[in-house]
Structure formats: structure tokens, C-alpha cells
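User: Please predict the structure of the protein below. I'd like the answer in C-alpha cell form so I can feed it into my own downstream comparison script.

Assistant: Understood. Taking the following sequence of 409 residues as input:
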Amino acid sequence: MRLGQGVYPAEPVAKGAAFEVLSRVPEPGFLHNALAGAAYPYRCFVPATDVEVLEGIPPVPDENPMLVPLRRDLTWGQVHQLSQSPRGRTDWSLAHARGTVLIQRGTRMMKILSAAQLAGYLSGWMPQGFCYREFDIAHLRTPADLAVLCSDGAAGTADEAIFALRWRAIDPHDYAIPYVEEFPGLVRMPPQDRRGPPVLGTGFAPSDRHLVPEFVTADLGDLPLPAYAELVAFTSDGTCVMLYRYLPEQRAWTGMFGQQWHHLFAAVPGIAPDQDYFTIPPPPVRLVGDYRGQEFEALADPPTEFRVLAKTRLARYQIESLGRRTPRAAVRGLPVTVIRDEGAWLRVRLIRPDDEAVARSSSTCVERGIYEVWAPAGEVTDRHDALTRYAFTPPAEPAPRPQWTGQAS
């Protein structure tokens, strides 16, 4: 593989979204490979578009790359500069580039987490707020690279590890682009009322080097966790460590790592690294589907498997429709999503936060773009379940196998 003026061996990352380029000698931009028994002591991670494959057949990526219409009077540096400025929202080239970044059913998504957020997800948090396609950030592998994408602003570039939630999208309607027209309140939020980096409104994350398209969950609400979602850690040498995998039938995270990684949990509050099974309570947001005229909670294994959620295999019937039920309400005239129900008190989240709504509801910014408050149940009105229907065609069931009758044909 050719990178710059050199030729190196390489391995694909994230199904071809990026490459791990290997070297036997230290070179500028390469990291020390701390994995025991590594044949190449140095490596770097680069987008697939930055290298030229000289031997072998590169994997075909599952996602479409971002296409930037460069020309003589518009360089890559100028496009990046536009992405970091509110005036870039009106530029045709930047809008065209952002429009090529699409989510489809099964797209692998990521949300960068601090240590405190990792503990929250092990306690039952759902995917929420700002997130990214794994395809667009697969080449970012260290805390220094990923810290700017951490939504609560607590991750430092010098940390030993940074964490991430990785899952597959159930439907494109679960995501929106944080343009200024859709979320003007977030773009104009004063610094004292926000956490993490500012929202630019261009559809790109704040970054001094990278062009990173970002998404938010629909109405900034929670999304159901699909089967086999993962909690991972990225270390300072670029290693990705699988920590936990989600089992939907048990509503639990199960540990997937060994003792050599226990030190990564030194900053994770309330989590013992030797505990390898975390059950979580049923979330208010639910994935649902119809089977023979009745609605059931559904299990999603995108892009093709959608069945009734049941612990026994025989009861996991193929559903005939697919949707998401999200509890909605109003607090002091403001539309909110109900995140938690404790009987006399409800935890609610603003759907379209701005400085006026934050002041009226006394909400607190818990992470970038997410504003929540505890509200007395008596002050919460118009409680209902909002049903979002997805375009869904159930796959054809396999034909039954012929039964042997014991007679020769």
C-alpha cells in the first residue's frame, strides 16, 4: 500500500473505511504498537481515500464516502474552514458534501463517551444526542483524536483511554442533521449554558484538522438499543478494546475483555472491572412491531433481522411492521420527551432547546445538546406515546422443508 512516498503493509479497519498502516521503523505520524507479539512495532490509521492499494483486493465499504466537489478555487483547506464557520451553511459545495453522507438501515454508528458516560450506559442509558457514522471517524483512534467528539467535554486528550458506544442504525428516520435551521437554539446557546464543543449548525463537528459530519438522534431523544451493540475503549496507542456487548433478550451488557484491560476503568465511577454482567431496566422508548394483528416489543438485529422480543427462541416471531414508541409530554408549555418515570417525578428532556426554554423549564445541560430536568408529575401535561412508523417489508420466511414419509419416490 502506498502512503505518501512510502510503501507499507496495511490492514483494513471498519470494513474498509480506513486502513491500519504498519511499519518496522518509527516514522512521523506513526504510533507505537503496544500489542504483545506485534510483528510491526509502529502503525498509523488513515482514511481509505488517503492510500493507494498496490497489492491485494481492498474490501468494498458498506457505506458511501463523503464526496467533496473540489476545484481550482476551492481547496480542501477552504472547505474545512467553511465547515467551521456559520457562513458555511450557505455554501453550495459544503452543502453538497454534507448531502452525500447518508444513513441506511444497518449503518454502524458511534457515540464518543467519557468515563462517566460509560458508567451511565452500563446503568441503562440509550443512544441519544450527537453521534457519527463509524465510516467517517474510523481513522480517529486515540483519545487525542476523539476527545473533541466527546459530548460532555470531560474527556481529555492526555487520558489513557476514551470510550465509545457502537451500534447499527435501525432506520434513517431516527437521525437528523444538526443544521442551524433545525436547531437554532443549540447554535445560539450561550457558553455558560452548554457542555462540550459548540454546535456550528453546518452539519460538521468542530475540529481543527478533520472534516467530520455529525448527526443527532431524532428530536434529541433516546433510541432503542439494537442487538449486539458494543461499548469499546480506544487507547493512546490506537488499540480498540471490546469491553461489553448488549444482549437484548436479557436486557444486559456482558463483558468481553480480559484482566489486562482492567486498568482502563480507573476513572470509571461506580463500575468494578471484574463485574462482567450488567442488567438494565426497561427503557421508556421501545421498538415495536405487529404480529398477527397484535403489537409486541421488537428485537432489532439490523439490517435484516426484526423479531418479537422474547427470551425463548420459539417465541421470536418475524414481525410484520416496525416502529418506535417514544413517550412525549409538555412541561410549562414546552414539548419534552419523558426519559424516566419515578411516579411522583418525571425526568424530561427538551425537544428543541434554546436559552428561553432552558430558563423557563430550569433545565440543565447534561451533555452536548441534551437538556433535562426533574418535573413534578402534576406539572406534566399531554402525556402520550408518539409512534414513529418505519418503512418496513418483512423478509420472506423460508419455505418449509419437505417431510420424509418413509416411502421411496
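That's the full C-alpha cell string. The chain has a mean pLDDT of 91.
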